[in-house]
Amino acid sequence: MRPSASLGAGRTAAIVTGRTAAIVSFFRPRTRLQTMSLTLYEKVGCPYCAKVKGKLDELGLEYDSKLVPASRAERDEVVAVSGQAGVPVLVDPEHGVEGMAESADIVAYLEATYGDGATA
Question: Would you tell me which CATH number, out of the four given (3.20.20.20, 3.40.50.11260, 3.40.30.10, 3.30.360.10), belongs to the domain 30-114?
Answer without folding.
Answer: 3.40.30.10
